[in-house]
Amino acid sequence: MSKIKFQALFSHSVMAVLFAIFAYGCANVSPESVSFSQSKKQLKQAYKQHNFHTEFYCGVEFDIDTLKILESNSRHIESNSTAEVSLSDFNGFQAKGEGSLLNANDRALSAESAKITKETTQGYTPRKPLTSKGKANVRAKRIEFEHIMPAHRFGGQLECWQNGGRKACVNDENFRKIEAEKRNLVPAIGEINADRSNFAYAESKDVPQGQYGKCNAYTDFKNKRFYPRDEVKGIIARIYLYMAKQYKITLTQEEQSLMESWDKAHPPTEYEMRLLQTQGF
């Protein structure tokens, strides 16, 4: 995308349209009658079509064919190494002002031939590089499709869920429609997708750093809260507000207040506009 085109897209009128679409929903837009599995396949094809390969929570680059985190941007560290490793200052995707896009490849760390005990990728370090059985944590190396508003949240108000949880909603047409909503799906590192689970999003000035290396995300397992990096808070907010409007999901006062705050504080970025393209908008 050229700088001129990018700046044009970020005119006040376009920004206003983006805010309106996400914050208030679009009554004339309805997702196709597809399954969650089909939506994931369509999104993968869209990533190829639009050359979209930047992960959501940490901003790491991934292979659009395999949905694997790019090994060429990794540094492997030996457990017995005493050498001090200097990592890039790259904290994931950042858009700094109009027309400026930080390219992860410009900050890539070269791969090294070493015994892998901990892997850092563009600022992301797996919380658990190994499983309890001592094997490599494959979810830390792959991209998965994350529901921004988790299934537990949008399904919890449905009768099928109340009668038996997610399994009981497998054949519920309404649940399947919401589950397959592409605007609620983003590419996320598998480990973080698993850690976040169905935890609510939250914000704090005193969020611990380093849980995932230099990726500015944090999972509070004790209080069941997930703290995303600033760069995606606005996107999360507009998706939540859209989902609430489109599917008549009643947000709690805490959710409504947080999402409205993030919506105002974090306007659309080029990353969000590219994400919209892959989602069909």
TrEMBL record:
<dbReference type="InterPro" id="IPR007346">
    <property type="entry name" value="Endonuclease-I"/>
</dbReference>
<comment type="similarity">
    <text>Belongs to the EndA/NucM nuclease family.</text>
</comment>
<keyword id="KW-0540">Nuclease</keyword>
<dbReference type="GO" id="GO:0004530">
    <property type="term" value="F:deoxyribonuclease I activity"/>
</dbReference>
<dbReference type="InterPro" id="IPR044925">
    <property type="entry name" value="His-Me_finger_sf"/>
</dbReference>
<protein>
    <submittedName>
        <fullName>Extracellular deoxyribonuclease</fullName>
        <ecNumber>3.1.11.-</ecNumber>
        <ecNumber>3.1.21.1</ecNumber>
    </submittedName>
</protein>
<dbReference type="Pfam" id="PF04231">
    <property type="entry name" value="Endonuclease_1"/>
</dbReference>
<keyword id="KW-0378">Hydrolase</keyword>
